[in-house]
Specification:
Elements: E1 4-5, H1 15-22, H2 24-35, H3 40-58, H4 63-98, H5 100-111, H6 116-134, H7 139-150, H8 155-165, H9 173-185, H10 190-200, H11 204-227, H12 229-249, H13 255-273, H14 279-285, H15 293-298, H16 301-322, H17 326-331, E2 335-338, E3 347-348, E4 359-362, H18 367-384, H19 395-408, H20 410-429, H21 431-440, H22 446-461, H23 464-482, H24 486-498, H25 505-514, H26 521-546
Parallel strand pairs: 1-3
Antiparallel strand pairs: 2-4
Length: about 550
């Protein structure tokens, strides 16, 4: 079979027309989901079919390559994405089966004096950010959604909260892989990549500051914002400042780790001297059970330690696997990698370079496997220290929870596989990059629209890393052509991507599964899409200002 080369003006010799046609798969997905009200996996299947037709008839991609691209994306959707989500939810279910999760709820109740608004800030934003820093790949949404749900917050609100909270930390997620990818694909030096991180560190703190306020607003309206103002202010401000400082003056790979720990510490100190008012009235309004004195008295230090232990284990396991050089380097050898049948050597990008279609899966050092290791460690400890059967847990229960979780998320798993198949067909056929080139041709206005490329990329793929891999080179080329700062444009792509994550079909499916709303992804989408657009507008404005009046926040490194 001859090689296939991406052509960005394949439809009618026009980039604009080609870009318009390229939006059909995404439009199909959301029309099916929101207009037709089809289930997510049905919407994904129809959108995949449309993407294939556009690839074959619009971009002249050979049918065999289009089909092979879909299978390549589908496998990536299964391993690691579905695998990560499955293990994350299973990990949580183990803590529930042991009975220890009720103690964790009590810990958060005690820390926030029973105020679920503050507890949601700590769980979804601070703890979720820590998980994003170490894991990524949907694990933070899956884990924190179940925890927020367990506080007594309704499923739809729980899903909305965690998706919005999973924004500001994403750029530096998984040890800042999105930024490292942007630098590598964009051909930047180490110093320039660090500059990209520094510029992102001038953008995302603005989002971070407002997220706790939005969480309070979603749970309890403007009354909730007023009553939790000190906590929201301290958590948002401390997170934002720590994110800025670490990305600009320390190690950008550790930005989220430092920011989350600082924010949690600041919240802990604040709550020693200040307590929210109206908690009893709040719990009555939200129909939550009262916190009794007996509960406080019974919660011993040992029970608190054991309740927090699973998440400490997660942080340690992920930290050992991803931080430093010795262990991560050693773990790299445990990787399956092979050329993808039917695609190897047959795909060329718009510049004529060969597209790498190899499949690679690190079967130990991936978030899913690390969650399995963490779960086994926690299960062993819980079985050994069960307080004379009070917290009984058996291997049979552990196995049953895994099977039950896998069955529960079967349709969401299919949705994710189909969505990733859709993304790869769009990527390999040139549909995604054509949309990107259309925006790059907007001239001086490109500075304002640059974040939209990242937003589109993440909306399609569900990954800020993938969006940077798609558009980094295009952002640099456009910046050089227009006399803009390439590092700023790469930062814009990264930050624009983080606010597109909440509307990604992949993220919607993860959140829906975690809160038992499978098939109701459209309801979640309606709740988050407005926030996504609002955040995107804010990022576009910030980036545009960084090209002129705020240029001191986007230094140039040659």
């Amino acid at each position: 079979m001859n090689q296939f080369q991406i052509v960005t003006d394949a439809v009618g010799g026009s980039v604009g027309l080609s870009a318009l046609v390229s939006t059909l798969p995404l439009l199909t997905f959301f029309i099916m989901l929101l207009g037709v009200k089809a289930r997510a996996h049905t919407s994904g299947a129809v959108a995949l079919l449309v993407a294939g037709l556009v690839a074959i008839f619009g971009f002249n991609m050979p049918t065999a390559l289009a089909i092979s691209s879909a299978f390549r994306g589908g496998l990536f959707g299964l391993f690691p994405i579905v695998f990560v989500i499955l293990t994350a939810i299973w990990f949580y279910q183990i803590t529930v089966a042991s009975g220890r999760f009720e103690d964790l709820r009590s810990v958060f109740d005690k820390m926030g004096n029973g105020d679920v608004r503050i507890q949601a800030m700590l769980i979804a934003f601070c703890f979720g950010g820590l998980l994003e820093a170490l894991a990524g790949f949907g694990a933070p949404v899956a884990i924190t959604a179940t925890m927020i749900l367990a506080l007594g917050i309704p499923p739809l609100k729980s899903a909305t909260i965690v998706l919005i909270a999973n924004t500001a930390p994403v750029a530096f997620g998984a040890v800042a892989i999105p930024i490292t990818t942007a630098g590598n694909v964009g051909g930047r030096t180490l110093e320039q990549t660090e500059n990209i991180a520094a510029i992102v560190g001038h953008q995302t703190p603005f989002l971070a500051f407002f997220v706790p306020f939005i969480i309070a607003l979603l749970i309890d309206g403007w009354r909730g914002v007023r009553e939790t103002l000190p906590a929201a202010f301290v958590i948002g401000l401390s997170f934002g400042i720590a994110q800025w400082w670490t990305s600009n003056h320390f190690a950008y790979q550790l930005t989220d780790v430092v920011a989350c720990i600082i924010a949690l510490g600041a919240a802990f100190i604040l709550l020693r001297f200040w307590q929210p008012k109206g908690v009893d009235a709040l719990r009555e309004r939200l129909d939550l059970p009262e916190i009794t004195a007996a509960d406080d008295k019974e919660l011993t230090s040992n029970r608190v330690f054991m309740a927090l232990l699973p998440y400490a284990v997660v942080v340690v396991v992920f930290g050992l696997a991803n931080l430093g050089t010795a262990i991560p380097t050693w773990l790299k050898q445990f990787t399956i990698s092979f050329p993808w049948p039917g695609l190897d050597g047959k795909l060329l990008d718009a510049a004529g370079g060969e597209v790498n279609s190899d499949y690679s899966f690190a079967y130990i050092n991936n978030p899913g496997s690390l969650m399995v290791i963490s779960a086994i460690i926690v299960a062993i400890i819980y079985m050994a220290f069960n307080e004379n059967g009070r917290y009984s847990l058996t291997w049979g229960q552990v196995g049953k929870e895994f099977v039950d979780t896998a069955w529960k998320m079967r349709w969401s798993a299919l949705t994710i596989v189909l969505v990733l198949a859709l993304a790869y067909v769009m990527n390999y056929s040139g549909q995604t990059v054509t949309i990107g080139e259309f925006f790059a041709n907007l001239g001086p206005a490109f500075a304002f629209f640059a974040p939209i490329l990242g937003w589109v990329g993440v909306a399609v793929t569900g990954s800020d890393t993938s969006a940077n891999a798609l558009f980094a080179n295009l952002q640099v080329t456009a910046a050089n052509h227009l006399g803009l700062n390439p590092d700023l444009m790469l930062a814009a792509n990264t930050t624009g991507g983080v606010v597109g994550k909440m509307i990604s079909p992949q993220s919607l499916a993860i959140a829906a599964t975690a809160v038992s709303m499978e098939g109701k992804e459209s309801e979640i989408f309606k709740k988050v899409v407005g926030w996504s657009f609002l955040f995107l507008l804010a990022i576009c404005t910030i980036v545009f200002l960084q090209t002129n009046v705020l240029s001191f926040l986007a230094p140039v490194v040659n």
